[in-house]
Backbone:
């Protein structure tokens, strides 16, 4: 019986699933970070660890790894030559390395046309129509990722400093932020010196929460973020028959705020990204070329 | 005859002037960087070097440093305890360490009430009315410095990526930027990974230049920046009798774009920051407590 592997990897960890060529999952495994840009060899080891666990979980011999093909969805796979270098050292019989957003889309939409919007610490969008892919965004919070948690948190700190300077009117939310930073703008500046996207993004849920209570600073930031998300979605010109799936940590917070046009075509994801990788592997490597369910 | 020192120091270098207690400059000197946050001892050495040169330039014995009082305007003097630590190791008979924006204001406005807007890679504002100081901004480009060259450059890269993704309409300016980054968003992302404020700020003059030619992307960015600057100036509620001085590398580009209200009270600076430090030293340490001219 033929087997396939699906792998979902990112900066915090990776997951593997061993499946039949009809897409039925037999075993699962987990591994450490798979950040191919910062640690290619480490990423490879962690991916193989996860795959080995999936074989063991399924009661199969991990030595079969060498004869099993895999679809891997990895963050950063579209940048530079990291993908080619990883493929060269992976032990699978065949390794199809895709960007993580593609396996997310495959999992979320299955056979349907439509788009995913991954709204978390960063933002990235991917649409598929008649098999044609259209990626948008995902360029990082410094000059992209509009509507992301990182951008919302950064904007909140900016508003807080403008309130401190009495350039703009404050609110409960800006008061809470000033309190948090000891009413000292130097503390905010210090925070921003080495802040990573996730450091800014930690404030995003609080912005949504206060906006919902009518906080003016929170509402302004959320309205801007919703407008940014919808401005990007507009490029896909989604038809009423197509699907929109919101993914990522902020999906549930954005969902009720999008305009009716988008809410009308919004669906929960059919499967997660790992499920998407498995379905892709089953389709690509399965004998009948099918097996999607 | 009594002497005073004025010092103007920042991250790229420092300047010293030896003057009489009536503010007449007798000699000048230059030294290396005076970044008290990153190299306190080095900053002290470079300041003393510059002061020694000023004595020599004036034909005076540098040994008099120990009996000469100084006013020093230094970037970052308002953060943490760097100021106190510097004062403890400076060799002058008295050391008044002020933020660099104060000596800039003193030089630019002299005895007049009003405000300075330092518009360069960063932005910082300082107003003085009846001896009362009101500082605004200067919090760095990550979450502040609206209207600065760094923010304008960062915004330009963001617009360029939005144009690349077809989320927003492009222009000659965005075409030039895409060309510069080989039409590859990854190159822009790579640039932003370690970009310093000055790296972003290098694009600001180009934005003004294209905006002046009617470029829609340039105009949008410049209009937003002008609005940001005016929103901040509004907090000072400057009277028609007060002065506004624009300083910094972008001053000349902003000057014709501000609204009539601000153009009506705009004056060129009377003196530079070093002149301001000298005048402050003459006033503070001079026998008659005066000498401002």
Residues:
């Amino acid at each position: 019986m033929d087997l396939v592997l699906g792998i979902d990897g990112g900066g915090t960890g990776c997951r593997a699933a061993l499946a039949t060529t009809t897409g039925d999952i037999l075993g699962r495994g987990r591994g450490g970070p798979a950040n191919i840009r910062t640690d290619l060899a480490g990423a490879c080891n962690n991916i193989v660890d996860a795959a080995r666990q999936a074989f063991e979980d399924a009661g199969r011999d991990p030595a079969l790894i060498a004869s099993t093909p895999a679809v891997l969805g990895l963050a950063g796979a579209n940048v530079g030559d990291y993908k080619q270098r990883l493929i060269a050292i992976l032990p699978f019989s065949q390794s199809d390395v895709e960007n993580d957003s593609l396996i997310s889309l495959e999992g979320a939409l299955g056979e349907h046309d439509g788009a995913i919007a991954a709204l978390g610490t960063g933002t990235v969008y991917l649409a598929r129509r008649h098999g044609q892919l259209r990626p948008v965004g995902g360029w990082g919070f410094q000059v992209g990722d509009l509507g992301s948690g990182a951008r919302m948190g950064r904007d909140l700190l900016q508003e807080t400093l403008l309130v401190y300077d009495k350039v703009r009117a404050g609110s409960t939310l800006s008061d809470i932020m000033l309190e948090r930073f000891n009413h000292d703008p130097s503390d905010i500046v210090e925070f921003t010196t080495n802040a990573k996207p996730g450091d800014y993004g930690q404030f995003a849920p609080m912005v949504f929460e206060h906006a919902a209570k009518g906080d003016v600073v929170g509402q302004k930031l959320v309205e801007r973020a919703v407008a940014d998300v919808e401005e990007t979605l507009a490029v896909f010109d989604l038809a009423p028959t197509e699907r929109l799936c919101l993914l990522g940590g902020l999906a549930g917070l954005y969902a009720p705020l999008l305009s009716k046009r988008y809410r009308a075509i919004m669906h929960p994801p059919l499967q997660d990204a790992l499920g998407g990788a498995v379905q892709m592997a089953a389709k690509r490597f399965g004998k009948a070329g099918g097996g999607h369910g």
Observations:
- Residues 40-57 of chain B form the longest helix (18 residues).
- The mean pLDDT of chain B is 94.
- Chain B has twelve helices and nine strands.
